[in-house]
Amino acid sequence: MAPRPFRLGRSRTGLGIFATRPIKKRTTISEYRGKMLGLDAALKAEKSGNRYLYEVNSKWTIDGAKRGNIARYFNHSCNPNADTFIRGKRVFIRTIKNIEPGDEICYDYGRDYLKNVIGLENCQCSRCRKRRAKQRAETRERNARRKKRLEAKGLTKGKAVKTTAAKKTKKSVKSRKTRR
Q1: Which backbone phi and psi does 17 adopt, to 5 degrees?
Q2: Are the C-beta atoms of 79 and 17 separated by less than 8 Å?
Q3: What is the pLDDT of residues 82-113, one digit of tens each?
Q4: Is the pLDDT reported for residue 118 higher than 50?
Q5: In Å, what is the CA distance from 173 to each residue of 60, 154, 164?
């Protein structure tokens, strides 16, 4: 049997799976293994903090927490190069693109997991990091334009804030006088 076409290694989010040789599109590379849990046991495991649960269907969930389950190390990406498919009660990971050596192999965990466990703003995939970097750059540009506008009017940011605060104080004094 040929050695696996991937290795376990350090990734941006902890441990991840990286290709060691080219992997063709539609190649099944691993199976998500673990104990089968019923609905009640899966809910109990989720409440206790188990993050390696894979819901096969509405009745069965695979508990992939054991370290022997190499598929638990495939990380999430909003721009994946692999995907999962279910056959019976078994879950397999298959590539959806050609993968080059050194590339991290990852699949999309789904919107619920991203929202509830990872957090929408905590995704570390390349697509989300680029999006956040672009948003930060736009915010810096907007703040620089605002600062230039204020300087052109002869107001510094500190004076503008004081002026706004003074207006609020005058308004609150007027409103107190009218209430009495």
Answers
A1: -110, 130
A2: no
A3: 999 999 999 999 999 999 999 999 998 888 87
A4: yes
A5: 65, 28, 14
